[in-house]
Amino acid sequence: MWKWGLQLMDSRHINAEVFFYHFFAFQSKQEDMKIVGDCTNITRSFCDLTDVWVNMTEMYIPKVVGFRGNAALVSCMGSFFLAMDTLPLDPPEFEIIGFTDHVSVNVKFQSVAPKILNEEELQFYLALIEEQSGGIVKKNFYKLSVCVFPELPSLEKVATVEVIHINRKKKVWNYNYDDESDSDNETAPRISAGGYTTHGLTGRLCPASVSSATLEDCSDPATEECDLPEPKAGAEALMAPGPSPWQSECTSRGYQGRGNLLQDHFSEEDSSSTEGSGDRIVFNVDLNSVCVRALEDNDDSEVTPVLPSRPEETVVLEDPDETESDLLVASGEGTQLPFPGPSAECPWPEDTPSDKSDTSESDVDMGDGYVTR
Amino acid sequence: MSAEPDVIRKCTWPVCLVGLFVTGILSLDCSLLDVHLRRVTWQNLSLLSRMSKSFPIECLRESKAFELPQEILSHTQPLTRDIKEAFYEMSRQAFHIFIQDTFRSTWEEKHLRQVQIGLDQQLQYLEQCLEEEEEENEDMREMAEDEWTQSGAPVPQLSNLELRRYFNRIDRFLKDKKYSHCAWEIVRVEIRRCFYFFHKFTALLRRK
């Protein structure tokens, strides 16, 4: 479960006497800070804002203040633009749960808060899927299931084809009649359990109903941020901060996210095509029914989430509107957020004893069930 | 004897090749417009995020609600052309904002240039595809507009007007704040939000 919140990394000064209050404001609105009801007068510095921050277009200004008595011991502020400043969402899992006159597919989003799904991204993309499919794909939001009503494809098309490559030359038994044969450069096709060749490539299969399936229709699940690649016509670059529109139309067989994208395996395969043709099976697939993604060298950079800031980077914390405390002891080491994102620097008093050890900057088990990322 | 004709002949062919090459770069398959726009918009969005490490908290007090007209893309049946035109208007207005060179001290110039190039690229794509569409589907567009008007829905051009007003508010804010550091940071964040909003709707461009 994805958690958004604030955590003070330097927990040495945290003890039972310090109570925290969490606030946030919208950058675009001149409103007072809103207090987070569930994170008021608490002993932990971390607050789960997953169900509070639901607007992806807004920039949130969070603030956490730690009090000892009436004295504000620490105050931290930062800024988050959720679309850019959060880690990418995990790709959903697909589960085919029925196959009669239609294909029922359960799409399980693992790392997205329910409110986000309800209020913005999922609604938008599922509606888009339904619309774009011309009614072939029906969504059942509450069960998070998607039913696909394609014309029933032949078994050969739905078979365990895992690899398709449109540039792959058709293998033909060579009796050595043709000196120009390039069989030396070919490789023996791998035989899958279903008796079909796999050609040693990876890819994703789209249902036959997606007749217009092209490179851009099979998008990668959402990953954020990217370095600037060279513009490449036809290269898929659909990056959305949420589930991509076509995910539910792609079966998940062998789905491994970006690691399963089409690569130039030909150059890496062994040239061992000189074996007998008796075990060789030529497998033809209607390429209009499959989804192929050509991975360019720079595509990785386009989908690779770029951490907006490094732990070393800090935001100068100032509290211009500090009214709840007159005594802000600003000294001591700065603290840093445990998960990638805009950092916040929170001053601590030097002489405050510590009862806890420092936590790492990576995933941290807060001990109360939260894992910050 | 004049060597000029020889020089001209020698230079003409390479120039033609360069011209064809450049034309090849600039020409775009408009059936992939949504893909290109989605990528370029996201690149611009990323650039705006990286131009500044984080939003200066001291600038928070000067924030302003510019009221991005989100409703322009919220019609039940937005026409693809309307979305493209809205995209074009947004790109043009944003380009006008960032082409002002009064904020070189706020951000690194290379980042600024990249944003300008990205917006210019968007404009080129859209100009080409809108012109192609205008030539090919003029009659169909007129019919669609008639139906749109008869249905009681707002005239499509109203969305561009709302966009212009929105960017005019941004431009006026910059002038009123005398192009201060905080003013530019606030504008940066606002336009990034605008880009994100439009990025979401690139998917609608797939509608045929």
Automatic annotation (TrEMBL), chain A:
Region annotation (Disordered) ranges: 298-373
Superkingdom of source: Eukaryota
Pfam families: Tissue_fac
InterPro entries from the UniProt entry: FN3_dom (IPR003961), FN3_sf (IPR036116), Ig-like_fold (IPR013783), Type-II_Cytokine-TF_Rcpt (IPR050650)
One term under GO cellular component: plasma membrane
Domain Fibronectin type-III: start-end pairs: 22-71
GO MF term set: interleukin-22 receptor activity; type I interferon receptor activity
Name this polypeptide is given: Fibronectin type-III domain-containing protein
Species whose genome carries this gene: Eschrichtius robustus
Automatic annotation (TrEMBL), chain B:
Coiled-coil regions, chain positions: none
PROSITE patterns: INTERFERON_A_B_D
Principal subcellular localisation of the protein: secreted
Gene Ontology CC: extracellular space
Subcellular compartments: Secreted
The entry's keywords: Antiviral defense, Cytokine, Disulfide bond, Secreted
GO biological process, one term: defense response to virus
Record bears the keyword Secreted: yes
Domain of life: Eukaryota
GO molecular function ontology, one term from the record: cytokine receptor binding
Classification via InterPro entries: 4_helix_cytokine-like_core, Interferon_alpha/beta/delta
SMART domains: IFabd
Gene3D superfamilies linked: 1.20.1250.10
Record-stated family: Belongs to the alpha/beta interferon family.
Protein name from the UniProt record: Interferon kappa
Source organism per UniProt: Eschrichtius robustus
Taxonomy of the source species: Eukaryota, Metazoa, Chordata, Craniata, Vertebrata
